[in-house]
């Protein structure tokens, strides 16, 4: 009796092991990372994002559920068709299981679509569009690091509460700039503030003096920068140059990365309030990881790069736990497991694909307060995930059962 | 869109002045392009990249050699201009007898190379370049706050434009240059070293681009892609002024700056496109450009 | 000779998807068709358009919109796109052909920038996000185009039709007039040809074909984005044509194949951060060392061999 039981157990275990082996398609787990290696977004994502993914794989020991992990990367040159082509090719011909990073909205939307068709998971870190988990949501997509709403809400509410109740926007004239302006306007008005006007500037615009002058003339207490990258840095420089800040108006960055602050310098950026999904100097865990990243890249990680590591890690853990790389199984496991690591606190992936986690409201330090290289932010407040991303009831994603 | 009534005369005046400041940068850039086109018959698509190189050289000079802004203003155009001469001697010279198209394509390729290879050194977000201490701060004009540095940009640009105009229209070298544009063979017959003249003209045009790059460095981030979209705008300016026309490019540069500035008030989204609309209209009505000879 | 080239081309088209990834091949074919359309203008009429992306992009958007929002079937959607491009081409041509040489190039660039601005502003294009999720649909209502192989052969047929169309135009009496205009316009006028009309017709044909390519591309990738209409795209098609050989039938096809393959391969390799540098270097080498392009140089070599 005993022996039969033992034998059955052994057989079951063997079977289970065999089944687990068979569940990993192609005998390996393959991660396809698409990013911008040399264009506008290569500082905030790019080579640093590739390095972050490599670190995640190394930290996992190079193997998951007994099979090797492989990383393939490609430069999509900010062209959605190149990204979609690569993603399809990886899915169809090279057995890639998951797409990662995907900076810029047009790329993320296109690859998310391909992922849904080919039943592959998309872990989006670099793109901002809130649409990814609303109208364009997909059962296979996780929007991991941030979105326009979460960046806007914290900054908007905090600034209004401090008395900055009249706003003027400098808005990049494209979908993403408009989304930022819309989201912040809602928050400003909800908190009792007023929006006095906005200038829609062409994208990319190099000279912001004219728009700064209009913002000055509006008399608004706060000038919100609903743009990104070079536009934001140039606008901040112009605001500084034309004495906007010294005349009592303040500037709020609605989508600013630490790489932007680094390139501006504290002298120009000081006093800027912004929201971020990650700051390297938040706690011991984030410091430890960022220090390792810094040794490899000679710079501190942006939230996008940290998000790539965290999302890849979360994915690999789910594969390890389920011994499977089946999309539905892994997605379920990823949704069921809360995320608490150096990157995210109280993180959870919702039905609509949104990874909700706490955000940080920060202020850029004065040069005299900065203790060393990359000591840029003073953390003002932790914004709870639900406040930053809204509740599931706000989501217009058709996958959410209501 | 805003109503006309909603805009105070103060704002309008401020916008006009800002337009003039931007226009003066356009003027230096388009002047360089016009000289190159006039003499070499080449649309220098590397112009935007050479403007960027000027800014990068200033930044590198400050960072690695400790050369201040005023040194950069002199040295950076010389260095970048010398690179220009080298490009002319080794590559453009060989295209003298083929269609314009090839010069355009070659310089387009060079621009891609310059911009692409610097991305990894500087990063796309670029590097900050401080305003020189002598020009910090500004003055309140009543209708707007004018930073001293922006005022300096206008003065420096217009001075360089005037000097160039004088050099070309009133000196012997200028006379050779103009003659070279009209009839290089005849000029050669008079014993003038035409190839040398052409190289120098290209170098000078490039140096002007680099000069405006140094002027722009403290205003914008010094980044590898800072000139990539500028080239087609500046080119449009040259076409509107009349290809190869020196005075035309200076005046049109200023004018386009002002028009662009006004568009930023009335229909800001269109401010990047308005120059092309004007260019299309001018080409249809007056194909030789506003100041060109038909 | 030409017959053999054609048979070779058809054979390659037929077997290629068994060796290479079909979606990649479709991309090559779309750009090859685009370059052929461009070459009809530059190579055979002597007009350098620096704004051809406007037609490519316009058709991509219209095709995408027609298929997604109006629910038009594949054929009609692509046709609508191509017709839109041809109409746009007619409008641009009316303005542009009055100018010559570098001015012609700049007018087309200026008008293309305006078209770009329109797409950036218009609601239906999705702005920076692009027009996403275009359905592939069915060919003639029966063949499911979600199957890559099926779509490939449809695209290959469209490409071949376009290529043969260009070849037919070039070798027709009309093509002879085009070449006459290219070589010596005053002479063509003195022979009694209405050269403006000839140029305009060539421009519309070229824009329509470019539109066909753009429309098909929108269906293949199920998206249309601003890069399709950006002036860099106009520059890229010049590069393809130049690299392959201006004024040769096969040149643009070869050029497009090389450029698209490079973009695709480079993006994954060790050089993946240097794609613009490599493309730029090709431009430079091409202009300095072999201006006739790959096919042009090959033809010249064969000719020398015969003599």
Could you describe the 3D structure shown?
The complex is a heterotrimer of chains A (402), B (294) and C (307). In chain A, 44% of the residues lie in helices and 18% in strands. Chain A contains 14 helices and 15 strands. In chain A, a hairpin with a 5-residue loop joins strand 12 (348-349) and strand 13. In chain A, helix 3 packs parallel to helix 4, helix 5 (148-161) runs parallel beside helix 6 (175-190) and helix 12 (303-322) packs across helix 13 (327-336). By secondary structure, chain B is mostly helical. Chain B has eleven helices and two strands, in the order H-H-H-H-E-E-H-H-H-H-H-H-H. Chain B has helices at 9-40, 47-65, 69-90, 100-122, 148-170, 172-182, 184-189, 194-216, 230-241, 246-266, 274-285, and strands spanning 138-140, 145-147. In chain B, a hairpin with a 4-residue loop joins strand 1 (138-140) and strand 2. In chain B, helix 9 (230-241) crosses helix 10. The longest helix of chain B is centred in the first third of the chain and has 32 residues, at 9-40. Chain B is globular, with a radius of gyration of 19 Å. Chain C is mostly helical and 307 residues long. In chain C, strand 1 and strand 2 form a beta hairpin. The model of chain C has no long low-confidence stretch (mean pLDDT 91). The chains are: A alpha/beta (402), B mainly alpha (294), C mainly alpha (307). Chains in contact: A-B, A-C, B-C. Chains A and B meet through strand 8, helix 7, helix 8 and helix 9 of A and helix 1, helix 4 and helix 10 of B.
């Amino acid at each position: 009796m005993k022996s039969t039981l033992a034998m059955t157990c052994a057989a079951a275990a063997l079977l289970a092991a065999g089944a687990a082996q068979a569940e990993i398609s192609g005998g390996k787990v393959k991660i396809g990372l698409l990013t911008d290696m040399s264009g506008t977004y290569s500082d905030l994502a790019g080579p640093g994002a590739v390095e972050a993914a490599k670190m995640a794989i190394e930290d996992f020991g190079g193997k998951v559920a007994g099979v090797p992990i492989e990383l393939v990367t490609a430069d999509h040159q900010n062209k959605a068709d190149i990204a979609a082509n690569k993603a399809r090719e990886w899915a169809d011909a090279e057995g890639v299981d998951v797409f990662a990073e995907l900076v810029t909205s047009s790329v993320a939307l296109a690859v998310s679509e391909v992922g849904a068709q080919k039943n592959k998971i998309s872990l989006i870190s670099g793109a901002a569009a809130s649409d990814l988990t609303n109208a364009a949501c997909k059962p296979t997509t996780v929007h991991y690091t941030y979105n326009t709403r979460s960046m806007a809400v914290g900054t908007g509410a905090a600034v209004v509460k401090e008395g900055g109740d009249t706003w003027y926007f400098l808005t990049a004239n494209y979908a993403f700039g408009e989304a930022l302006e819309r989201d912040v306007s809602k928050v400003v008005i909800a908190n009792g503030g007023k929006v006095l006007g906005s200038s829609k500037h062409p994208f990319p615009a190099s000279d912001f003096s004219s728009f700064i002058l209009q913002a000055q003339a509006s008399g608004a207490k706060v000038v919100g920068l609903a743009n990104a990258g070079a536009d934001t840095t140039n606008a901040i420089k112009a605001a500084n140059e034309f004495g906007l800040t010294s005349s009592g108006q303040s500037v709020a960055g609605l989508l600013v990365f630490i790489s932007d602050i680094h390139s501006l310098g504290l002298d120009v950026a000081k006093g800027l309030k912004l929201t971020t999904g990650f700051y390297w100097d938040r706690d011991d865990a984030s410091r430890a990881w960022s220090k390792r990243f810094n040794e490899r890249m000679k710079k501190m990680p942006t939230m996008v790069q940290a998000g790539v590591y965290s999302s890849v890690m979360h994915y690999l853990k789910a594969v390890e736990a389920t011994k499977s790389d089946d999309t539905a199984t892994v997605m379920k496991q990823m949704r069921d497991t809360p995320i608490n690591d150096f990157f995210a606190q109280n993180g959870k992936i919702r039905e609509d694909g949104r990874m909700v986690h706490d955000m940080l409201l920060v202020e850029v330090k004065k040069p005299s307060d900065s203790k060393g290289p990359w000591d840029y932010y003073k953390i003002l407040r932790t914004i709870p995930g639900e406040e930053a991303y809204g509740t599931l009831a706000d989501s217009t994603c058709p996958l959410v059962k209501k | 869109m805003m109503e006309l009534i909603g805009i105070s005369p103060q704002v309008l005046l401020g916008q006009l002045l800002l337009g003039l400041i931007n226009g003066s940068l356009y003027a230096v850039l388009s002047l360089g392009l016009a000289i190159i086109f006039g003499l070499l018959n080449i649309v220098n698509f590397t112009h935007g990249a050479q403007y960027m190189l000027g800014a990068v050289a200033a930044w590198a000079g400050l960072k690695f050699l400790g050369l201040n802004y005023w040194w950069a203003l002199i040295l950076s155009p010389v260095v970048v201009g010398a690179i220009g001469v080298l490009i002319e001697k080794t590559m453009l010279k060989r295209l003298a007898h083929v269609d314009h198209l090839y010069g355009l394509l070659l310089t387009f390729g060079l621009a891609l190379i310059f911009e692409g290879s610097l991305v990894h050194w500087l990063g796309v977000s670029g590097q900050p370049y401080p305003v020189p201490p002598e020009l910090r701060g500004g003055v309140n004009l009543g209708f707007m706050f004018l930073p001293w540095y922006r005022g300096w940009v206008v003065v420096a640009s217009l001075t360089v434009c005037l000097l160039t105009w004088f050099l070309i229209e009133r000196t012997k070298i200028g006379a050779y240059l103009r003659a070279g544009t009209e009839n290089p063979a005849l000029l050669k017959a008079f014993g003038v070293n035409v190839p040398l003249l052409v190289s120098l003209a290209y170098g000078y045009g490039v140096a002007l681009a680099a000069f405006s790059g140094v002027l722009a460095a403290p205003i914008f981030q010094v980044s590898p892609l800072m000139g990539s979209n500028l080239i087609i705008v500046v080119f449009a300016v040259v076409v509107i002024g009349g290809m190869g026309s020196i005075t035309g490019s200076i005046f049109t540069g200023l004018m386009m700056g002002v028009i662009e500035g006004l568009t930023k008030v009335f229909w800001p989204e269109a401010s990047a496109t308005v120059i092309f609309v004007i260019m299309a209209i001018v080409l249809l009505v007056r194909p030789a450009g506003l100041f060109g000879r038909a | 000779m030409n017959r053999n080239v054609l048979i070779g081309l058809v054979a390659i088209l037929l077997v290629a998807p068994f060796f290479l990834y079909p979606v990649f091949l479709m991309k090559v074919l779309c750009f090859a068709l685009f370059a052929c359309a461009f070459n009809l203008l530059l190579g055979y009429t002597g007009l350098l358009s620096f704004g051809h992306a406007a037609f490519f992009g316009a058709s991509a958007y219209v095709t995408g919109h027609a298929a997604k929002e109006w629910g038009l079937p594949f054929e009609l959607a692509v046709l609508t796109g191509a017709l839109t491009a041809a109409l746009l081409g007619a409008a641009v041509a009316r303005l542009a052909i009055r100018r010559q040489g570098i001015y012609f190039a700049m007018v087309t660039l200026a008008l293309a920038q305006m078209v770009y601005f329109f797409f950036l502003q218009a609601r239906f294009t999705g702005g920076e996000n692009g027009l996403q999720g275009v359905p592939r649909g069915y060919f003639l209502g029966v063949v499911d185009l979600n199957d890559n192989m099926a779509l490939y052969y449809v695209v290959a047929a469209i490409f071949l039709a376009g290529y043969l169309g260009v070849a037919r135009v070039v070798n027709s009496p009309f093509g002879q007039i085009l070449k006459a205009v290219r070589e010596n316009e005053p002479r063509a006028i003195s022979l009694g040809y209405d050269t403006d009309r000839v140029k305009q017709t060539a421009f519309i044909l070229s824009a329509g074909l470019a539109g066909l390519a753009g429309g098909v591309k929108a269906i293949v990738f199920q998206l249309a984005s601003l890069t399709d209409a950006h002036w860099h795209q106009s520059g890229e098609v010049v590069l393809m044509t130049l690299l392959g050989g201006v004024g040769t039938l096969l040149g643009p096809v070869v050029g497009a194949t090389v450029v698209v393959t490079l973009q695709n391969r480079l993006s994954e390799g060790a050089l993946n951060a240097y794609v613009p540098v490599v493309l730029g270097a090709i431009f430079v080498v091409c202009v300095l060392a072999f201006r006739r392009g790959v096919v042009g140089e090959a033809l010249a070599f064969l000719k020398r061999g015969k003599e």
